[in-house]
Amino acid sequence: MPPPATGGLADRIAAALPQTQCTRCGYPDCAAYAQAIAAGATDINQCPPGGAEGIARLAAITGKAPRALDPNFGTETARSVALIDEDWCIGCTLCLDACPTDAIVGANKYMHTVIDHHCTGCALCVPVCPVDCIAMENASGVATGWQAWTGAQAEHARQRYAARQARQARQAQEAAAPAEPQAGNRQAVIAAALARARTRAER
After folding, report:
1. Are residues 15 and 60 in the same domain?
2. pTM, whole model, 2 decimals?
């Protein structure tokens, strides 16, 4: 028998995650973690940003018993946002590549800055910075886990991540597509094709 469909269940599980796309759960993004839970391939206690309430939500959806957050994946903390020390930023663009929601703006060799309301606090930008000019700052005070998030913030993060994924896929497709002949070469290409056709017709 084919395995049971998990699309609907995975979608419900994903909706219970704060959508930080931080990869701390061991999966490349929140959707992949949700799919793994739905398929029974991993546990429900691997999302530090969701914290204890997140685990309770996942338990209610999956029917699994709630359990403590696995410390191997981190600890429940306040929501944070990245802050770039603009005096030290060298404009290397590595943080732009690392940010899953395009929350950082800047250009090569120019100062970068973070758009706070797009930042999920994933901290993926921190280790790639060669001059250590990025720090994570508390954005939710004493509130941690889902107490530090709203559903609207999670949905905004999910949409930003999806838009970035779509853009990257489009760029990869465009890069792989054969280049169109330049206007100056088009006549030569046509002439060569006609010459080959005449040669075949004369044989």
Report:
1. yes
2. 0.82
